[in-house]
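Tokens for chain A. Residues wanted.
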């Protein structure tokens, strides 16, 4: 059973944050995904290794346990077997190492999944993973062929430490004795899964749907109007193992509009004549075209607020606003006649120096 350096698999240091681990996992998963490496057995192996590393390092309890094990895992494995065999009242069941930290299989612990799915069976993981994190055990007598699961009450982390002659060590570092401390039953949380849905501004305005594949099944997930980057759509009970699936929205930048919550901002180019003399100028918005009245003498950078022309509010009624910022475009490449006319116009206007306030 070969020791797995999960940090090396993901290419991160042992001090990496959860955010760094998540980014490294997504990058490696995309690189080695079977859909983009059809028939490549090495990529398939790397893909499994990447998912196994993420299944441990993205779960704080499993990561802490893995960091404690290090390359001394063989001693821990032997101690786990001793603790399991020497526990009274558990006849007929072989002890599973670190049973008290069983994560419910490779999908457990709230691991982030980049639109990746498995059958929920730990068989695709290494023997090292199964021995310490998947909660696997030897077949239980009377259950028929195949692998059984250690029932509640199997050897805990304290049992294993006792088998190594380290009784009294506390997993949390408190150093209290475990001999007389009653064990509190714990409930393993249901596993969850995540997928990413990229949308554009039009889809954010009207809402849309995305197909997500989980355990070989294609699910249609509805993205509500007004959703944006960071919005999490929850689909109850559709993750492997009966947990919830979370679809995280990522909105692509728009070339015209800038989003701020439910409000939108955009620039509106104006000709010199429209700014000087005023005009009704068409403005495109997600809700369609609207005529905006530009008063005579409008300055560059003036902002007009078009109420209710923004995006729907995900929580609450109505829409946000559209903020229109003017940008006056001055004509260039004037002809001689146009330049003469411009000189006469400037003389007639006799505009004061606008920089006098800066002095």
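Reply:
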């Amino acid at each position: 059973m070969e020791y797995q350096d999960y940090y090396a698999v993901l290419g991160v240091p042992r001090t990496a944050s959860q955010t760094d681990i998540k980014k490294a996992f997504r990058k490696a998963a995309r690189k080695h995904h079977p859909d983009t490496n059809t028939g490549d057995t090495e990529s398939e192996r790397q893909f499994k290794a990447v998912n196994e590393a993420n299944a441990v390092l993205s779960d704080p309890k499993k990561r802490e346990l893995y960091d404690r094990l290090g390359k001394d895992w063989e001693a821990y494995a032997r101690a786990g077997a001793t603790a399991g065999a020497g526990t009274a009242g558990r006849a007929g069941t072989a002890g599973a190492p670190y049973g008290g930290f069983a994560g419910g299989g490779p999908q457990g612990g709230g691991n982030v999944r980049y639109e990746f799915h498995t059958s929920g069976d730990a068989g695709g993981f290494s023997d090292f993973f199964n021995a310490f994190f998947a909660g696997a055990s030897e077949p239980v007598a009377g259950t028929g062929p195949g692998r059984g699961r250690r029932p509640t009450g199997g050897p805990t982390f304290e049992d294993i430490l006792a088998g190594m002659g380290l009784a009294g060590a506390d997993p949390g570092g408190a150093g209290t004795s475990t001999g007389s401390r009653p064990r509190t039953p714990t409930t393993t949380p249901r596993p969850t899964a995540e997928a990413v849905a990229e949308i554009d501004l039009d889809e954010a305005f009207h809402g849309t749907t995305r197909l997500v594949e989980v355990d070989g099944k294609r699910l249609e997930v509805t993205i509500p109007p007004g959703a944006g980057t960071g919005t999490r759509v929850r689909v109850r009970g559709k993750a492997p193992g009966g947990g919830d699936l979370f679809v995280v929205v990522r909105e692509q930048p728009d070339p015209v509009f800038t989003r701020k919550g439910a409000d939108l901002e955009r620039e509106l180019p104006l000709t010199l004549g429209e700014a000087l003399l005023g005009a009704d100028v068409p403005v495109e918005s997600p809700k369609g075209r609207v005529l905006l009245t530009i008063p005579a003498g409008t300055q560059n950078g003036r902002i007009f607020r078009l109420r209710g022309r923004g995006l729907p509010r995900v929580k609450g009624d109505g829409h946000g606003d559209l903020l229109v910022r003017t940008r006056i475009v001055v004509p260039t490449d004037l002809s001689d006649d146009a330049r003469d006319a411009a000189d006469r116009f400037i003389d007639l206007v006799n505009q004061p120096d606008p920089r006098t306030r800066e002095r």
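The longest strand covers residues 263-271. Confidence is low (pLDDT under 50) at residues 81-123, 135-155, 163-180.
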